[in-house]
Specification:
179 residues, mainly beta, Porin, eight-stranded antiparallel beta barrel, 57% strand, elongated
Amino acid sequence: MKTHSTLIAAVIGVSMLITGLVTPGQAYQSKGDSSLQLGGGFFHAQGADVGTLNVDLGYGYFLTENWQLGLIQTLGYSFIEDGDDQWVASTIPYVNYNFRTDESFQPFVGAFIGASYNEDDITGTMGPQVGFRSFVNDSTYIVVKYRYEWFFDELDYDDIEDNSSDGNHVVSLGVGFVF
């Protein structure tokens, strides 16, 4: 577990360093604005020999300058030790609160509830998420986010033993646009 925490902290730290090197833009989302983001990341299931690379596409709508509702669609490919590799997808509606610290750096916290599925099974998922946006111009940003997924039931991977019912750590780095 300590190795996973160290890896997550390292990824977030490097991401913050990279976004800090980019000349910040001055951004200001307003009520009624939309956002579109494309990201990639990884997760490692606790207590299992499964690691997954994933791609996610998200759409968000700003109810106010701070509150955002949205939907994330993820698709991941799982590398399973001593077993057949599998795909997993999630459809996750979310709500985020965006802190307005300044115009270029915007941390957020949120929650989600949705569904995760593969070719063998489907289950519900929910949890918290945190992250930040670093704007590079008025409408383009780099996003770093972390979410923890609790599952309603275990996802089955054929006949492979999987103890991921404790949840998944998901870290994602991406680019987004406000329009």
